[in-house]
Amino acid sequence: MEYSIGEVAKIAGVSVRTLHHYDEKGLVVPQRSATGYRHYDSAAIDMLQQVLFFRELGFPLADIGEILAQPDFDRIGVLRRQREYLVGKSARLSQLIDTIDRAIEETQGERTMSADEKLKGFDQGPHAAEAKERWGDTEAYAHSQKRLSGYSKEDVEAAKQEAEDIAARFGELMRSGASSDSPQAVQLAEAHRLHIDRWWYPCSKQMHANLGDLYVQDQRFTDYWDKHEPGLARFVSEAITANAA
């Protein structure tokens, strides 16, 4: 079955102009009739679905084009990863809705909430928060979101566990009496930078140094480090500075 461009626009909830743009970019190319009218067959609808999924995940059109043009593009594999990401996003949104409902009840005097209950659902992980805080409107942040969307739930958990392991090692090093500019601390700071670079977004030593500043300037990030060991945020910040020198 084939659909006209107007029918597809109505079904997908996008404008005809948007479909023209996708056609011009080579993302979703419909069939053309002898008179030049666009007709969308099943293959074009499938491609439009992929483009819209990627757009929902925040991918820029240029990146979508590169992904779809790859010779080894695995549609079923991509769909599964997109599903995992959206399921995780849905669970977080459900938690936020529950937090809102509880906040309404508390405001109406129907219940009380602890600090943990009031802030439940907002945690996206320390490095994701850091990136958005400093570079939310930059290419680096877009890169991190693109990378994250391709991760499975197991990948995300592995990244978080690695971050916790590094924090624990920093805590052990600080308790041992080592200085923040010792070879061991500098080596661990580099491991931390490479962790961010590998899992989240390209992290140069200068960008890493900026993050180190944030650890002592923003109480939220100070709290993340200091929960492992009081004063650890400053220790880590100084180690990162030494590594960047």
Written account of the structure:
By secondary structure, the chain is mainly α. It has helices spanning 5-12, 16-24, 42-56, 61-68, 75-107, 115-118, 126-135, 139-149, 153-175, 183-199, 205-217, 219-226, 232-244, and strands spanning 3-4, 31-32, 38-40. Strands 1-3-2 form a 3-stranded antiparallel sheet. A hairpin with a 5-residue loop joins strand 2 and strand 3 (38-40). Helix 11 (205-217) crosses helix 12. The longest helix has 33 residues, at 75-107. The model has no long low-confidence stretch (mean pLDDT 84).
CATH class of the largest domain: Mainly Alpha
Number of helices: 13
- Strand content is under 5%
Shape estimate: extended
Largest sheet: 3 strands, antiparallel
CATH superfamily of the largest domain: Antibiotic binding domain of TipA-like multidrug resistance regulators
Based on CA atoms alone, the radius of gyration comes out at 23 Å
Count up the domains.
3
